[in-house]
Design brief:
By secondary structure, this protein is of the alpha+beta class. The chain has five helices and four strands. The radius of gyration is 16 Å and the shape is globular.
Length: 188
């Protein structure tokens, strides 16, 4: 499948999905992405990344389909280091795959993503995982890390998947195959 705009999904793969229809699912999409930083956050190497955090987080929070993101009471997600001091985690919940995909690949977020290699080490293993949670449930960091480990071990499954091999919510009518959205990252 060829990637669409900004390395995201092939637009033809989204043709069967009508984003104007509200989701009637009893599930929401959780996502975790991780990155091993090239330097401490207070270093000059990371200055542009840090300078853009508030803007990009506000963009996410104002995006259609955004539900929640992991952060401290002060609003700082970078202070949370459950996978080690040099690993940043980003975890959020969205209405559906399409909403998250539009934010990731179709907004100013993609400009920052293209610069990922300036700030983060290239990882050989999967660093983004998606999974469904019951509507209103907020995933724990431990659950998210377990989903990432599952994806790394088993590949995309209904329990832990990627944009490229996305699965519908558990209460969706069953199809024979996973949806194909593409997850070609413009930063790689």
């Amino acid at each position: 499948m060829s990637p669409g705009l900004h390395g995201g999904p092939d637009p033809a793969s989204l043709a069967a999905i009508d984003p104007r229809k509200p989701s009637m699912s009893a599930y929401e999409l959780a996502q975790l992405n991780v990155g091993v930083v090239n330097a401490p956050l207070d270093s000059p190497v990371m200055a542009d990344f840090v300078a853009n955090l508030d803007r990009i987080n506000a963009l996410a929070e104002g995006s259609p389909g955004f539900v929640w993101r992991l952060q401290t009471e002060e609003g700082d997600a970078t202070a949370l280091r459950p996978m080690g001091d040099d690993v940043l985690v980003n975890m959020s919940v969205w209405r559906d795959v399409e909403s998250l995909n539009k934010y990731v690949y179709g907004s100013a977020h993609v400009e920052i993503m293209r610069r990922r290699k300036e700030w983060f080490q290239r990882l050989k293993d999967a660093y983004v995982v998606l999974w469904w949670v019951p509507k209103g449930q907020r995933p724990t960091v431990q659950e998210a890390v377990a989903k990432l480990e599952l994806l790394r071990e088993a590949g995309p499954t209904e329990a832990a998947f990627t944009f490229r091999h996305a699965f519908p919510p558990p209460d969706a009518p069953r199809a024979d195959a996973a949806q194909e959205f593409g997850d070609e990252c413009p930063a790689t």
